Each structure stands twice: as structure tokens, then as C-alpha cells.
């Protein structure tokens, strides 16, 4: 498989125009860092200098790297591996026996509270940074070209506004939800709210649900997010600055494309780079290649539930390996828990695997996945159908997009047993439509005039060259909500109509009474 | 000047994937054809077969061409050069002495009536085509890959829907107004209506005006456009098909970009190809080169009021040449009228000129233009500031965009005299900000990852390869307007709240009366 492209005759390197820039990166820890690191490496490769702000308690973000220099803050970042793994374990416990509305609500509350804690620590962190006069001065002196940040917390954006630097987002979620909702008109009639598990084709009651979830989400933000930042923003930016204005970015590099995401309104400064992290498969390590080749004509099934879920409750793990054991295929499962008793000879448990290289191997027939964005994008890139076992966060939504396109099947991991899992695997393996549809998605995804990563880098460098991209930013940010929605104009027009009608009614009344009086007199 | 670009390492020609396609083009005559022809020539160059539908009375569209084969309909197209030139002459007369609200209204009515006549003839033309069973069968048999059309009239789109072929628009205006308004959310608070002469920064009363003009435009469409097509669409597509559904295109190739247009919401299937027709300047014919070089350090002023305005009322032409005669610059004016008596030695009147090549000449200091889209895009591409004399159509709006960016000045041609014109020229020539701003626009426009024409062709070929681009089309088209705006959901929620409140009130009332009765009894 390779990128379809056209002969772009004007492609030459213009060395005088390639500006070796300085980029200040304020990343979000955890799986978000994996994405950011791809861009950082590419920036380094193109000769730019990258500085990364991290905390002493950083989890994924290493202090030393050949690709960047780090600025380590002696503060808590709020991103906490232990908490997250504990949360996932609790989640598996909460959801056992299937999901009810109550369990769902409890889960959302749990997540909101966790998010609130993270945001509180992030807000303290940025305040600490602002009060570190020496560090702030050194950041000013460094004359960065731009701040590159992930707006899952607003911290990086606030720093960019404070330093008055151009701002580029590497974004899937902002602290207020899915990236588009902060910037592009999002008619709730066909744009599903994140976490709603709704598609872009909604019945009346689904549209109603979408509106209600939107209201709930707005309430959650007001309750759990804004209080941590409002005082901070007032203190450093003055009383007239609101939270949303911090998000006036020059560019939004969105980690989706419309092969994956439902089509929806967008904005001129949104660049779609979905699948930017995907690369052609490299050869496998010999032991894996041997194992894969040993599968013969049956091929191989790959399973991974992401980095956060190293192990499962024993009965669930047993059910999975028992189902696998019945298959003629070979199976590679990234699993760190105890070896299940029902493990078949055909199944290889591994601590880590070169997931993308395996997905690109022609022997791979099926990907059993939790539905994290990276894994789903890699499956699309390599054209491997998915059996989805979503757990939390955006995983249900990600897999819904695959299911809607007929490129995968989703089963509920919390009510699943050996039989259900086995039937699920058999269905995706034997019904050719899953593979055909996923390969169609793969062809569409690869058929772009420019590779997503190259496009993202072009636009980051565009911001360096032109010191921002103000000409792509709409005026919408500057309007209060009632003006944005023309509510003031509508009320004014309604008042005018009312005045005209009242005047008219008054006139009629006066005329009538005059007429009656005259008549009365005459009588 | 040249295109800034990045080294796109994956750019190779994939001959197996380049599909020699068959494209059915249904163009709009007049200046729109000039644009369409650029794409047709490029399609031909890339090995695609192009068929163009034209009428026997076609005005710009020639029957024979090395780039396409034509399908000539023995019917009136409605596009009428004589009418348009007469209209422009009348316009110059109407507007003389400046524009008043009444003159403006009269002009709009005049235009609406002319448009209505064109639409009526276009509707007859498409009906005639549908009734020509032999021709329709031959179009079906030809197995075109797609229909490429300009939606300034809906005819080409209706033909595509009838033939069930993928549909690509080459668009600036649809029959209902500016292209975006048919497809993308357009908040009237910062998206000005075409013809409003408003920018994206509006005061309260400008926003009010924008809403009123929107209402007026909707009324005009209902009155002058829909009646010509409603019966036709019902006859050939059934009673449940509405006019707007004809516009469900796979792609909208928009003839603007956000260097020219105010930033606004857009859609995944909108491709911006503003300036696609622009090319580096070729050497001038010797006599022109000699004339240009003779200007020395003062440079040259270029003037053109477009192909429709060959001549002006004599007093206006005299004022213009008299002002030119005072300048040390040389002037080239594309003018077909009688030679004005005040014509200076420095001014060359020409019937035709290689406008783009002249604009790209380093001696050119200023472009005096009427503000047609092509001329404005060429001025941006070559970085030449504009003195605008807008007359009609989108010319005021086009020039407003240049003026807002500080890259040109606009004067009212109808109240203008020699002095005003001279002062206007001097201002743009002597204030360096005009040139600096236009060169900034030029740099921004040229700094794209892929040339606009290459991008447009990539996406046309994408539609050929994938038999459409359904994955980029939103669900919004399928919703009735009240569902699209969630009005049904809001009414339902309001009803629920009302029922709850009424029940509550009733309950209170019952309790009160029970309490009173008990009290009464006890007393």
C-alpha cells in the first residue's frame, strides 16, 4: 500500500524560506504525549529547536531526549498514572454486568471529579510558572516562534497568551470537550456530542438526547472546570478577559480526518491530520515474523486494550483465551496479567508489541482493540477490520465510527462471555464486508494530496514564517454569545414589530372611540 | 516571485492510479466560462476526456476546441451579451450622481428580473434536454465519471442528479447567492451577505442590516427563482424532492481563499482554489515591453474595467484621461470607446491586453480595476495594489475585501471627477502601506502546501477514483429546516417544562382548596 498522489510539479525545496524556528511545547502527559512526540521528532528532523515544559512528576515525558531540551517545573502536573490505573480497575468493577443509566452517571461523575483535580493542579502549575519571574523572563528572552500545546488542559494556551506568542494546538479534546465544539458551529441535529455514543444520523429522541447531553456537559464545565481558572485569568489578564478567549489559536491541528470522523462544519484554521502518526510497516523482529508466518493461510489476530489496561479480571481473561484457543488462527495479545489457564498453543502473550508494524503485516486478519484513537487510526491506515471492546473515555465513540462504516463490530466487554467473544471474532473473520469496508476507508484515508504529517508541519512552519495565521481566524470569538447568535438583533426586530402593532392597535382604538363618541353625540 | 513550498518527499507519479476519466461539463456562459475553461484545459492536459454542453446562442463558449468536444443544444441559454451590455449602460445612467437607497433598490429589482429571465430560459433548456430522449440516452451511454458545473444556475446540478452522476461544483455563486450559504453554517453576526457591502466586523446596526438583507434575498429567491424550477423538479424527480436537494454536490471547488475572503465556517467537501487561474507572468509583446520600459523609475499604471465595460460616458472618460495626463507614470488602459480629447502622451489605449503578464511585470505600480474576481485575484497573486472603481454585481464586495486589508482604495465612479480620481491615484502611489499590504497578501496566498489548481484537479480526480466523495458530505441536507435548527426538540422540551409546571400549579391549587375547605369545615 502506498500514498496515491499527483505529480506536484512545483515541489522544490526553497532553502531561503525554510526558517529554523524555536518552538515551546507545553504537552499533556500520558497517551497524548505519544502524539505530541511524533510532531516534536518531525520538528527536530526539520532543523527546528524544541523546548518541552514538563513537571518533576512527569509520567511519559522524559527529561532528556535527543529531540528536545526540557524545562522541568518542580510542581505536580496532576497527571497521575496510579490514579488512572486504579480508576480503570474501578471502572471494570463498576461496569461489571453491563452498563445502566445509573452506572453511567456514576462513571461520568467519577471522571468529572478526576478531571477537576487535574485541572486544579494544572492551574496551580501555571500560576507557579507565572510567579517564577526568572523562568518567565528566560522564556521571554528565548524568543520562541510559537507555542505548541494540547488543549486537553488550557495551561499551554494560557502560557502562549501570557507570552503573547502565536499558538498552535495539537488537538483532539479541549478541556471543554471535543476540539470542534470550541470553534466551529456544531448543529446538534447532526453533530453528536462526544460521549453521547450517537452517530450523525439521529432520530428525534436521539437528537433530544444530544441536546440534553450538551446541556449536561456545559453544566459540568461550569462546575468542575471554570472555577479553577477564572481567578487566575482575572489576575494575569485583567477582569475583561474570559476563559474562552484563551483558546484563540492560530491553528488547530485536529487529530482526526473525515474518513474517521462524521462530516461536520469546520473552520479555515483547522487542519486535519488524522493518522499523522501512521507509517508503513517495518519488518518484524525475527521471533514475531516466525510466529506470524506459522499461522499459514489462517492468518493472525492481534489484540491490545491499550497501555492503561495491562491486565483484566481473571474470569474475563480466561473467557478471552478460551475463545482464542478454539480458533485456527494464531493470536498475539499484549497482556501483562497472570497467564490464564485456558491459554491455547495458538496464543502468544506479550508485554509489548510493534503494533503498527504488525497491523501492516499481510497475515493480520483482525484487530481486537479497546478503541483508543491511535490504534483505530493505525487500523484504518493498514486496512485491518476491528472487533471493539470499548471501556471508557472516547473509546465507545471511536468504535462507533468504525461500526457505522461497517468496518468493525463492537461488543460489550462487561456482559461478554467466551461464546459472545468467539461469535464476534467469527463474524468479523468470515463476513467479508468488514474487511472490504475497512480497506475502502484505508484507500480513502491514504488518498490525500499531501501526507497528514507533512501538512501539519507545513502549517506549523507557516505560522513561523508569518508570525501567526490571523487571516484564518474568524471574528466569532470577539462577539458575546447573544450577538454571535443575533439574539440582540432578533429582540430589536421583535420590539420594532411590537411597537408598530401597538401603535396601530392604539390608533384603531382611538378611531373607534372617536367614531362611537360622534355617533353617541349624533344619537 | 515563486511558490513557497516544502519538500514533499512522497510526490511521485503513480501511473496505475491515474484514471483517464470522462467529464461532462455544464458551464455558465460569460465571465464564468473563463474560469471553467482553465479547469477544462487542465483536465485535458492530464488526459481526461471533456464534453461541454452549450447552446447554439452561446456567447463565450466556442463549438470547437482542442480541449473538449461540445454537445450543442438548439435552444436559448438565457445568457445574452447584448442585454448585459445594455444593462451596464443603463446602470451607469441610473447611478450617475451617486447611489441612493432608491436607486439601489431599483437596481436590485432590475437585476432580479434579469436573473429571473435567465433562470426561466435555463429551466426550459434543461426540460428540452430531458425530453430529447436520444441525447439523454447518449449521455447515459457515455458513462461519464462526473458532472462539473457552475451552480450560478441550478441546471448542471439538476442534470447530474437526473443522470445519477457524482457532482462537482466550480463555484463562486449559486443561484441562491454566495456558495457557502447553501452548505455551511453562516452566522449572520460575522458572515456578511453578498451585496451587503459589509465586512466581518459589524456594528449592531450593520448586523441588523445584514439580517434584513438576508431576509430580502430569501424573498427574492422565493419570488424570482423557485417558480421556474419547482414544477420541473416535481415532474422529473417526484413530489418529495425539493430544490435544495439538487445541490447535494460531492465537492464544492470554491473560487476564493481566506487571503481574499473573510474567514468563516466551511465544510469538509469545500475545496478552496482561489487564484487557481493565476500563473507567473510571461514576457510581454515587444511593443508593450518597450512602452513599459519607457516609464523609467516612475513605473506604469494599468487600468481595466472588465470585458463588459468597453466604453464609458464621454465626460467620465475625459476626467480619467485628464487625471492620467498629469502623472509622470505611463498608463495602459483597456478602453474601446472614442479617444478622449484630454488623452495624454503617457497613456496608451488598448483593445486588449495580457493583463496577468502585465500585472506580473516589476514596473507595474498600480491597478485601476472594477473589482471582478479574476482581476482582483491576479492583483493579489502579483502583489499589485488596487484603486477600485466598482460598478455592479460582486465588485463592491470584492474591493471591500481588498480595502479592509489595506491593499487598495475604493472610489465611487458615479460621483467621481478628475480631481477625486487624481487624488485617489496619488494616495495609492505615494502611501507605501498599500503596496506593503498587497505584497503581504501575495505572500500569504502563494504560501500553500499545494497550488490551488493542482489541489482542485487532485480532488476532481479523487471523485473519479472513488465514484464520489460521500464521506465528506454532512447529513444536514437530509433534515427539514426545523430539525436542522433543533426547533422541534426545543418545542418538545418547552412543552415538557410547561406540562410539569402546570401539573405542579394544579397540585398546589388542589392542595390549597383542600386546605381551605378543611379549615372552613373546622371553622
Précis, in short:
With 523 residues, the first copy, chain A, is α/β, with parallel strands linked by helices. Chain A is built from 17 helices and 15 strands. Chain A has helices at residues 31-45, 81-95, 101-131, 133-141, 155-163, 204-224, 226-237, 286-293, 314-325, 355-359, 373-382, 395-404, 418-430, 432-446, 452-466, 481-484, 487-522, and strands at 22-26, 49-55, 69-73, 146-149, 167-171, 173-174, 177-178, 251-254, 270-272, 300-304, 330-334, 347-350, 364-369, 386-388, 408-410.
Q: Give the overall pLDDT of chain A as a whole number.
A: 89
Q: What distance lies between the first and last C-alpha atoms of chain A, to the nearest angstrom?
A: 100 Å
Which CATH class of the largest domain in chain A?
Answer: Alpha Beta
Shape of chain A: globular
CATH superfamily (homologous) name of the largest domain in chain A: Glycogen Phosphorylase B
Strand elements of chain A, count: 15
Weakly predicted, low-confidence segments of chain A? 1-17
Strand order of the largest sheet of chain A: 3-2-1-4-5-8-9
- Percentage beta strand of chain A: 5-15%
- CATH topology name of the largest domain in chain A, in short, is Rossmann fold
Count of helix runs of chain A: 17
- Name the CATH architecture of the largest domain in chain A: 3-Layer(aba) Sandwich
Amino acid at each position: 500500500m502506498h500514498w496515491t498522489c499527483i505529480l506536484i510539479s512545483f515541489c522544490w525545496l526553497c532553502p531561503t524560506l525554510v526558517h529554523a524556528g524555536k518552538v515551546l511545547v507545553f504537552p499533556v502527559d500520558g497517551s497524548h504525549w505519544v502524539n505530541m512526540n511524533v510532531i516534536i521528532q518531525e520538528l527536530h528532523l526539520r532543523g527546528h529547536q524544541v523546548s518541552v515544559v514538563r513537571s518533576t512528576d512527569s509520567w511519559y515525558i522524559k527529561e532528556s531526549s535527543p529531540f528536545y531540551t526540557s524545562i522541568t517545573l518542580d510542581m505536580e502536573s496532576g497527571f497521575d498514572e496510579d490514579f488512572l490505573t486504579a480508576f480503570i480497575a474501578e471502572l471494570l468493577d463498576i461496569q461489571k454486568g453491563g452498563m445502566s443509566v445509573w452506572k453511567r452517571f456514576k462513571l461520568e461523575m467519577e471522571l468529572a471529579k478526576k478531571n477537576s483535580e487535574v485541572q486544579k493542579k494544572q492551574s496551580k502549575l501555571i500560576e507557579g510558572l507565572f510567579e517564577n519571574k526568572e523562568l518567565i523572563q528566560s522564556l521571554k528572552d528565548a524568543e520562541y516562534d510559537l507555542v505548541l500545546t494540547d488543549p486537553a488542559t488550557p495551561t499551554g494556551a494560557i502560557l502562549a497568551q501570557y507570552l503573547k506568542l502565536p499558538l498552535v494546538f495539537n488537538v483532539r479534546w479541549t478541556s471543554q470537550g471535543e476540539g470542534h465544539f470550541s470553534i466551529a458551529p456544531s448543529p446538534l441535529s447532526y453533530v453528536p456530542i462526544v460521549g453521547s455514543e450517537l452517530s450523525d444520523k439521529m432520530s428525534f429522541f436521539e437528537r433530544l438526547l444530544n441536546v440534553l447531553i450538551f446541556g449536561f456537559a456545559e453544566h459540568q464545565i461550569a462546575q468542575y472546570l471554570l472555577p479553577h481558572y477564572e481567578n487566575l485569568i482575572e489576575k494575569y489578564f485583567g477582569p475583561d478577559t474570559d476563559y474562552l478567549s484563551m483558546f484563540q489559536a492560530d491553528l488547530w491541528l485536529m487529530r482526526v480526518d473525515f474518513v474517521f470522523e462524521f462530516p461536520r462544519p469546520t473552520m479555515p484554521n483547522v487542519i486535519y491530520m488524522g493518522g499523522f502518526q501512521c507509517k508503513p510497516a517495518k519488518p518484524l523482529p525475527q521471533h514475531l515474523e516466525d510466529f506470524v508466518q506459522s499461522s499459514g493461510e489462517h492468518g493472525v489476530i492481534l489484540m491490545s486494550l491499550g497501555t492503561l489496561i495491562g491486565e483484566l479480571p481473571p474470569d474475563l481473561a480466561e473467557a478471552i483465551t478460551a475463545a482464542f484457543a478454539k480458533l485456527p488462527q494464531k493470536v498475539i495479545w499484549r497482556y501483562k496479567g497472570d497467564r490464564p489457564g485456558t491459554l491455547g498453543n495458538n496464543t502468544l502473550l506479550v508485554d509489548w508489541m510493534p503494533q503498527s508494524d504488525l497491523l501492516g503485516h499481510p497475515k493480520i486478519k483482525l484487530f481486537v482493540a479497546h478503541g483508543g484513537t491511535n490504534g483505530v487510526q493505525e487500523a484504518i491506515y493498514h486496512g485491518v477490520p476491528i472487533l471493539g471492546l470499548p471501556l471508557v473515555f472516547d473509546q465507545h465513540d471511536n468504535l462507533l465510527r468504525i461500526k457505522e462504516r461497517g468496518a468493525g463490530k463492537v461488543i460489550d466487554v462487561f456482559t461478554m462471555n467466551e461464546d459472545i467473544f468467539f461469535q464476534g471474532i467469527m463474524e468479523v473473520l468470515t463476513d467479508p464486508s468488514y474487511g472490504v469496508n475497512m480497506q475502502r476507508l484505508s484507500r480513502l484515508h491514504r488518498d490525500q494530496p499531501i501526507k497528514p504529517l507533512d501538512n501539519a508541519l507545513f502549517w506549523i512552519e507557516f505560522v513561523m514564517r508569518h508570525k501567526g495565521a490571523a487571516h484564518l481566524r474568524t471574528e466569532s470569538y470577539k462577539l458575546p454569545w447573544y450577538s454571535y447568535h443575533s439574539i440582540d438583533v432578533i429582540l430589536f426586530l421583535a420590539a420594532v414589530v411590537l411597537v408598530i402593532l401597538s401603535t396601530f392597535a392604539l390608533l384603531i382604538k382611538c378611531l373607534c372611540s372617536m367614531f362611537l363618541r360622534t355617533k353617541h353625540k349624533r344619537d
